[in-house]
Fold:
Amino acid sequence: MLSFWENNSLSKYDFVVVGAGIMGCSVAYELRQKYPTSSIVVLERGVFPTGASTKNAGFMCYGSPTEILHDIDLLGEQKAIEIVWQRFEGLKILTERFGIDKMDATNFGGNELIIGDKLPILSQDKIDYLNTVLLPIFKFPVFSDFSTKVSEYGFSNAVKQLLFCAMEKQIDSGKLMTHYWKLLQEKNIQIITGANVKNIQGNILYLNNDATGDFVIAAEKIVLCTNAFINELVPEMPVKPGRGQVIITNEIENLPFKGSFHFDEGFYYFRNVGKRVLFGGARNLDFETEQTTAFEANAKIINHLIDKLKEIILPNTNFEIEHYWQGIMGFSNNKLPIVMPLNSCTKYVMSCNGMGVALSPFVAKIAVNGM
Structure:
């Protein structure tokens, strides 16, 4: 039960943002830019952002070559290239907002491995085609064939091709969110953790907290930035969860590679974290099980990731798995971001589809411009 003081001063706001991940923080920041004197609060049910913002791999990426080609087949060239541009603009906003140091960004580039039994080697004609259609965004040929690096990086001979993107960076997701929360507080935006929104009726949010119990908060406008968890509040929303399993090794002396890496159209991803290797993905191995918001280990996928480490990524290296965890992403039916008014006072915003770091700052601007 709330006290008189809490009911009087802490339960009525101009804007309530539900979700304190990258999207929720980006929306709250844009609201403050547009409404400098309004009262704004961000509600987060976890201690930290619940979905994927502090549980991802920390990639600042635009899409691997085979992923972009797949999107061109799925969406058409114009729409697929537009999404890459949105990612580019979003990462530019994020970099301007925080700089390199606050995100602990490292510019080791991004890579895609072509595994022989999965996808065909990408011809130079297709690489040239991608570079041509992406030239208005990047201003130079962004993809190049780095296959001569395969043996230098210690990968197995199952890797038939290595494609490189010099623009991509790696970040510390925990440091990014620490500074994002600090920035919101500096902008007089309140963040309340442990605030689990159970229901919304009109402009009233019904919440629960283990210590406080049930309580309500009223808002003039509500923005739901809950990504994959939206179905708990709006069951009919066309968004499905996608759980990502992630493992990380012990420190490996003389680790031969640095940077971010993808293979199998982005379903697998790995990077160095200092001397460690972080490796995640493989949802496509067990789609049905991983279409969930439950934070649980999937032994089938974790063991599969370990096998891939041994067979392809670190075939001649002894290592141990020190830690594993899960992140929950949200996926729309057509891989496009969603900015959707639900009623006169509530809007749902979702950008992820596995690209929340890049897309959230851009999509947040679009969402707030319409408010």
